[in-house]
Specification:
Blueprint (H helix, E strand, L loop, with lengths): L19 E6 L9 E6 L4 E8 L1 E6 L2 E6 L3 E4 L5 E5 L6 E7 L11 H6 L1 H4 L17 H16 L4 H19 L14 H14 L6 H8 L3 H12 L3 H19 L4 H7 L5 H12 L3 H6 L5
Helix pairs in contact: 3-4, 6-7, 8-10
Length: 296
């Protein structure tokens, strides 16, 4: 399923003692340019594994093209979003984990020297780690074992996942000879944009305007539009519509509300306009989405 609420900035960890979670993102009926990973951020680190297809991700406004087999490592606190870039179905696995997973090593001198800088956000690995010369088949396979353990959830899987992921990160740190300096945001008011995005997710049905959004981050509307497009690859109005229709998609799948009620709840009083807008962004009508049909 796509656009699960758990992938928003308040990412839920089901076990506090083992703060790591696997999210399998399998969006359906997506065309080139359609959103496959909702714009979000969280304090956790996130591994994005492209299982099939090709996608364009933005991590703190830096565009990154990735295809089948690629692995991205998103630092904690970074805004990130993804779009389909191929006719082939795009499937991604997201492993989200908090540095607290490795808390028993926090005071270990070797850990502090080699790895803590990455976990604490003082430095970061290249976003597209799979393209680094030190990224080996062994690292790819080990990550697959972590994913398999998270899927199967056999007895003691938490310990295996924790050990394997830690060893995987250590191997990255060992081979990454010249750590990147702590990344400066590509825009000076990233935190204001984070607050704006959080606000939009709560008030999308009110159809916030560019003027309102620009005022919230303290920017001129023209400059705001340029900054927002740089951050997300989309205009602000497109982003608001994606928020509205993503919620509509979730409600069509998981609620018993009528299509008219769903339209009204996302700020579309006219059901015909809702159908037109939904088809424009989602590639099918709300009725077909509810039935689980794909449009041709």
């Amino acid at each position: 399923m796509s656009y699960r609420k758990e992938l928003w900035e308040d990412t839920h960890m089901s076990q506090r003692a083992y703060p790591i979670q696997l999210f399998q993102n399998r969006p359906t009926n997506k065309k080139i340019g359609d959103c496959i990973l909702y714009l979000h951020w969280h304090a956790h680190l996130e591994l994005i594994i492209v299982k099939s297809g090709q996608a364009l991700f933005y991590i703190d406004s830096q565009p990154i093209e990735a295809r089948t087999g690629d692995v991205l490592l998103v630092p904690g606190g970074s805004l990130h979003v993804g779009y389909s870039q191929s006719e082939e179905k795009v499937e991604i696995d997201c492993i989200v984990f908090n540095p607290a997973l490795f808390q028993e090593w926090m005071d270990d001198s070797i850990h502090v020297q080699l790895l803590s800088m990455y976990l604490e956000g003082k430095n970061h690995f290249p976003y597209l780690v799979s393209k680094e010369p030190y990224f080996s088949v062994e690292l790819q396979e080990e990550l697959k074992r972590v994913t398999d353990e998270l899927l199967k959830k056999e007895a003691g899987y938490q310990l295996i996942v924790k050990a394997k992921l830690y060893a995987w990160l250590v191997q990255l740190a060992r081979n990454h000879k010249q750590p990147s300096k702590a990344q400066e945001p590509y825009f000076a008011n990233r935190d204001r944009f984070k607050q704006l995005i959080k606000w939009v997710k709560l008030h999308y049905a009110e159809k916030p305007t560019v003027k309102q959004a620009a005022a919230m981050v303290g920017l001129d509307p023209y400059y705001f539009c340029k900054q927002f497009k740089k951050l997300t690859g989309r205009t602000f109005i497109e982003y608001v519509n994606i928020c509205r229709l993503t919620e509509a998609e979730r409600m069509l799948k998981y609620s018993e509300e009528t299509i008219s009620e769903i339209a009204s709840s996302i700020g579309c009083e006219n059901a015909a306009y809702f159908t037109k807008l939904y088809k424009q962004y989602m590639g099918m009508t709300p009725s077909d989405a509810r039935k689980g049909k794909h449009s041709s």
